Amino acid sequence: MAQPYDLTTALSGEVGQPGDTFWLCGGNYVVGHIDTKIEGAPEMPITFRQMPGERARVDGSLTFYQSTGNLVLRDFELYRSDPNRLSAQNGVGFEPTDIRIIPGIASYSPNLSFINLIVRDQTRHGFYISQISQNNLIYGCIVFNNGWESPDNAEGHGIYAQGATGTKEVADNLVFNNSGANMHIYENATNRLLAGITLEGNVAFNAGALQNVRAYRDWIVGVDVPAAGADQIVLKENMGYHPPASGAYDQVQIGREGVNGSVALVKNYLPQGLVMNNWTDATVTGNLVAPQTPGYILSLNQAQVTLAAAWNDNSYLRSPSGKAFQRDLIEYGFSDWQSATGYDQNSTFTVGSLSGTKVFVRPNRYQNGRAHIIVYNWDNRSSVPVDVSSALARGTPYEVRNTQDFFARPVASGVFDG
Q: Is 335 helix (H, G, I), strand (E, B) or coil?
């Protein structure tokens, strides 16, 4: 601590050894944009993390490339102070040249972990995980207000992941208010696959909130031609929300073009519609699917391939003005859906509106005493009880913070008495 490195030098890879930890003291670090080949070693990563009890803010963006990775970033805030995210150009697609659009974190290397970061106000995506990356982890991050806009287009996804080698895990992140999609798990390059990606325990809402040029979805998972297809995709225990005044599409889209391999949707809480396209094998169980808009609860399109599915024990709710089920453009009521497909024999179907409350507490796997608390308060109650015993021991001091205004005063604090 007596002779600290400046952060730009530390991130360059010119100093430090595998197994080292660089501690970021409280303060604002202006780094601009850094391209780096920094790498640790297997079981000996180089780690950058915030000092406990302090607030480290990094003003800039980071790209990791041509390395073996073995790097961990955790606990600090990465933001961009550049306010220029409005292009004046028309007809340039996704590459305007009058503004500089760069992801907050771009990974072109394997074995990278991004843990409990706040990534906001970047000029393109919050995170971009490339085709050539593998064994990347994005965990416990808060990702919001990223992206750009032009007169005829807008983009900038919360988390954008591609690739088909190794694994990619995107878990327990809170992703909202981005210019593009919040979760954009997508490929469109010639003959490329999208595979081995797990989304678990994430929350996404308010896609496209930064602009009024084009509508996006909170969840996009799939490929467009000339890419080949998607495979080994898992969505487990994720949570969505579509605000009544949102301009986003209200359906979760799992599969786009091409013929896809296997997908698993397990125990997701989705007060939104669901669209699934051309999967060969699917496990769909334990989910709530409950759009609050007039569209279909579920639209399943299998024109290109026969589906083998384990599909049961789901809960469906349709608004009074909404529609039930659609398969290959044929509309079904619930009982007809069961008869035609053989699916959902032990599932439930209701017409009405969501009511009551639903609470999720997801303890953080890397920080004891930390958790994401998600409350669906459909009745607009003045208070909702929350059992946090899975995250806090009796007698532990606590603070409750608003994710959408994280560094404001805590909305509640005290000592947990069980």
A: helix
Helices (H), 156-297: none
Confidence of residue 418 (pLDDT cuts 50, 70, 90): confident
**Cβ-based neighbours of 6, under 8 Å, separated by 6 or more:** none
Integer angstrom CA distances of residue 172 from 19, 175, 209, 239, 291? 26, 10, 21, 10, 23
Alpha carbons within 13 angstroms on the beta-carbon side of residue 414 total 7
Q: Is the separation of the CB atoms in 323 and 296 below 8 Å?
A: yes
Q: What is the DSSP secondary structure assignment for residue 156, as one 8-state letter?
A: -
Q: What is the pLDDT of residue 4?
A: 85
The dihedral sign for the CA sequence 384, 388, 178, 55: positive
pTM of whole model > 0.90?
yes
Q: Which helix (H) or strand (E) holds 138?
A: strand 136-139
Q: What is the phi/psi pair of residue 339, to 5°?
A: -65, -45
Token output for 70: 């073995």
